[in-house]
Specification:
Blueprint: H1 21-28, E1 32-36, E2 41-43, E3 52-57, E4 60-64, E5 72-77, E6 82-83, H2 85-90, E7 96-100, E8 104-109, H3 111-120, H4 124-145, H5 151-162, E9 177-178, H6 182-189, H7 193-205, E10 209-211, E11 216-218, H8 221-229
Antiparallel strand pairs: 1-8, 2-7, 3-6, 3-8, 4-5, 4-7, 9-11, 10-11
Helix pairs in contact: 5-8, 6-7
Length: 230
């Protein structure tokens, strides 16, 4: 519990911050606090589970496998974000792999606990639907960004999305240091690693970002945003 299992305040940012306080309290009191080490999976593709997961501390990678390829890197979630709504709503098996990219504190809502929640708070499904629509909007925005003609501008848009500054619900905590590699970025942009490295260095030279092998720091999000509009 010493790593941060009492830090529920981060979980009322983003999606949960747009819901009534009574729903927040009823949901959080039915969650179990779990610490997950870097590199461990929270869930995997094909897993039969409808549980909901909230990130209180740390970062996770969302690796997508909706068709014949994958799992491939798609997105990053940080503090205040939740995942698992697709399977909770549909009852289908997991369509993505969620993996801790650093040590994480998570709040785990087992499906049985969610069923209990719906009995005492019947409007729970409305707020789960809100989470699902927020994720749909995020995915549509990501697809739209992939159609930006300039690959330099596509990269800027991707970095803003990954850092919760583009397409994220209002109130989501921005991520200043992303646990992503050049390989992750090249997969998400569908560019070669060589081309991706060149474009990252260009942004670093302008002091928009800094990066190492497995980290990218967002230094000037306003400049990245302006870069998209050029």
């Amino acid at each position: 519990m010493s790593f941060g299992c009492n830090k529920k305040h981060t979980l009322i940012q983003g999606w949960l911050g747009h819901t009534p306080e009574a729903f927040q309290n009823n949901l959080l009191e039915r969650c179990e606090c779990v610490e997950v080490s870097c590199g461990n999976n929270i869930y995997t593709v094909g897993e039969e589970s409808s549980d909901l997961w909230g990130i209180s501390k740390g970062q996770v990678h969302l690796n997508i496998a909706t068709h014949e390829h994958g799992p491939r890197f798609g997105h990053v979630f940080g503090p205040g974000t939740w995942c698992g709504d697709y399977e909770l709503i549909t009852g289908n098996s997991r369509i993505m792999e969620v993996k801790a990219s650093r040590k994480c504190v998570l709040y785990h809502l087992p499906y049985r606990n969610f069923q209990q929640l719906t009995k005492v708070y019947p409007l729970s499904w409305r707020w789960i639907a809100l989470l699902a629509t927020q994720h749909t909007a995020l995915a549509l925005g990501a697809a739209d960004d992939l159609m930006i003609k300039s690959s330099d501008a596509r990269l800027a848009a991707l970095l803003l999305r990954l850092s919760a500054r583009r397409g994220a619900p209002e109130g989501t905590i921005p991520i200043d240091e992303l646990d992503v590699s050049q390989q992750n970025i090249s997969e998400a942009l569908n560019l070669s690693r060589t081309a991706t490295g060149q474009k990252l260095r260009l942004l670093r030279d302008q002091r928009f970002i800094d990066f190492s092998y497995t980290k990218i720091q967002i230094l000037d999000p306003q400049a990245l945003n302006a870069y998209i509009s050029e």
